[in-house]
Amino acid sequence: MATIEKIRQAYQEYVLEHGQQPASVFAFAKKLKITESDFYGFYNSFEQIERDIWTSFFDETRKRLEAEEVFGTYSVREKLLAFYFTWIEVLTANRSFVLRSVKEFRQQRSLRTPVALEGFKGQFQKFVRDLLEEGRESQEVKSRRFLDTRYPDAFWIQTLWLLDFWTKDTSARFEKTDSAIEKAVNAAFDLIGVSALDSVLDLAKFVYQNH
Questions:
Q1: DSSP 3-state assignment of 171?
Q2: DSSP secondary structure letter of residue 114
């Protein structure tokens, strides 16, 4: 009996062995010894499998984080750092497939989010919005009118940059990627947290209101 995991794993193995998608759903289903109806009971296309695989990378990352009791005690900054470090671990276990996917993304030369990443993007941005809300409550994140709604997009761009950096990283154990994660997250939270600029603006506002 076909399962979604079996189909997904078989697809990953096929594209890695052949460097391309199967010629057709019929040929792929025959190789798995299932019917086309079995396949379509789970997926409508190969593109949907790719999207599901990338979403599964996010799901596995969240699963690992939530299995650690200490994760709940982290600051918002630490939670995002932990997410990225764990995400890279998940990607590393699937590096050959990820490199192939990213190569295709680059060939598309489009500013739009690749279809394969749409599910992952939606899940990630929801995760970030929840973190930002938690950060505002803990005062780790400064609420800024007109900018708050743009933060999830900014963190998504940061995520794509980290993904690209990791695919090109040739350092031992991807140590440079670890450094990139730390610097990127720290810089981001320094910007969205209470900063010297906020203090200056608060003072200017106070002076203006009381002159």
A1: coil
A2: P
Number of domains into which the chain is organized: 2
Residue 75: closest CA among 195, 197, 199, 189: 189
Q: Do 52 and 28 share a domain, yes or no?
A: no
Looking at residue 58, its pLDDT comes to 99
Q: Does residue 28 sit in the same domain as residue 58?
A: no
Tell me which residue range forms the domain holding 22: 1-44
The span from the CA of 50 to the CA of 65, in Å, is 23
* 184 plus 121 within the same structural domain: yes
Asked if residue 7 lies in contact with residue 43, where contact means CB atoms within 8 angstroms, the answer is: yes
Give the orientation angle of helix 46-66 with respect to helix 4-18, to 10 degrees.
110
10 Å CB burial of residue 107 (0-12, 13-18, 19+) is exposed
Contact between residue 11 and residue 55 where contact means Cβ atoms under 8 Å apart: no
Task: Please give the share of the chain, as a percent, with pLDDT higher than 70.
Answer: 95
What's the average model confidence in pLDDT over 159-188?
A: 96
Identify whether residues 109 and 199 lie together within a single domain: yes
Mean pLDDT across the chain: 93
- Statement to judge: residues 65 and 154 lie in one domain: yes
Cα–Cα distances (Å) from 195 to 91, 110, 136, 145, 203, in that order, read 34, 35, 14, 15, 13
